[in-house]
Specification:
The complex is a heterodimer. Chain A is mainly alpha-helical. Chain A has helices at residues 11-22, 29-43, 46-62. The termini of chain A are far apart. Chain B has one domain: 3-Layer(aba) Sandwich (Rossmann fold), CATH 3.40.50.1010. Chain B has nine helices and five strands, in the order E-H-E-H-H-E-H-H-E-H-E-H-H-H. In chain B, strand 4 (97-100), helix 6 and strand 5 form a beta-alpha-beta unit. Classes of the chains: A mainly alpha, B alpha/beta. The interface between A and B is medium-sized, with 16 and 34 residues.
């Protein structure tokens, strides 16, 4: 099932996306945002954020950086 | 003064997020913060006036061609942006430095190579460690993160960081 959303974007940003579509990298805006969203989700899993926070506390408060 | 690494190489994320909070001063806890030109440009795109708030220990330095080629040869740059690649390559020339980075992919690559790491959250906490700010001021800055910064963190994880701070 699909859901419809409405976005407000800076014009310059939208122009860059539209150029990618014109250049043939994406079929249309939906294709771009689905790809971008999945890219973000793949790079930011819950487990990765948990590790990030644990590491930051050790680094910031206990000078353990590895 | 805590026993700690004295130099840093910054990726754009922490520069942007600290500037959003007005907390770039925490970079003073390092003798030198090396920044590749690609990172400086990226930070300026997001925060045009960040250099005006940055401490005087910032040094812009490009990674050597040899360092870039070494990292490329390791095939570790898949999915990293130009700034992250440049920061990792610059670390080859400053291996006594810590990498300041919030990008989870770049951090994973850095950890594979044993590069010491810290991100925006660690830098904010570091202000307490170095007695630059009180724990309550650090707590306030952490609470400001969702409102003022583009570092997107789940509330439960932010609470975990807040809970790690000693009570005053």
């Amino acid at each position: 099932m699909n859901s419809k959303i409405e976005l407000t974007l800076p014009s310059q940003f939208l122009s860059k996306i539209q150029k990618l579509i014109t250049d043939g990298l994406f079929k249309e805006l939906n294709d771009f945002f689905e790809t971008a969203g999945n890219y973000y989700l793949d790079r930011h899993t819950e487990e990765m954020w948990e590790d990030y926070v644990e590491h930051e506390v050790k680094a910031g408060l206990h000078a353990e950086y590895h | 003064m805590p026993n700690t690494i004295n130099a840093a190489i910054a990726d754009a994320g922490p520069l942007i997020h600290l500037d959003e909070l007005g907390w770039l001063f925490v970079l003073e806890t390092f003798a030198t913060v090396w920044i590749p030109p690609e990172v400086a440009e990226e930070a300026t795109r997001h925060r045009p006036h960040w250099r005006q708030s940055a401490p005087a220990n910032i040094r812009i330095e490009a990674a050597s061609q040899e360092a870039r080629q070494w990292w490329e040869a390791e095939r570790k740059f898949v999915q990293l942006d130009q700034g992250e690649k440049a920061a990792l390559a610059l670390w080859r020339s400053h291996q006594d430095a810590i990498l300041l980075c919030d990008d989870l992919q770049a951090r994973a690559v850095a950890q594979d190579f044993g590069v010491p790491l810290m991100g925006t959250l660690g830098l904010i906490l570091r202000a307490a460690q170095f007695s630059l700010r009180s724990n309550s001021e650090v707590r306030a800055a952490l609470n400001d993160l969702p409102k003022l910064s583009t570092l997107h963190l789940k509330a439960a994880l932010l609470q975990r960081v807040l809970d790690s701070l000693p009570q005053e």
